[in-house]
Amino acid sequence: MALSAAPAPATPAAPAITTISLKAIAPWALFVGVLMLVVLYFVGAEQGAVALLSGENVHEWVHDGRHLLGFPCH
Length: 74
Known about the structure:
mainly alpha; 0% strand; elongated
């Protein structure tokens, strides 16, 4: 009784990696950067010395976020 070697299982081919060009990413990176600056302004500076909106609504909405990020507000 001879031992025969079982055939090795076929290894799947590695998936092709698609590269994304800088030209395709740039508009999205700019959009996200501007969005983050707007969020940072509203959390950090709105209702302070330079306020774009009147009232205390924005301050109250982002109050806990200010404390979490270390911004003084009172």
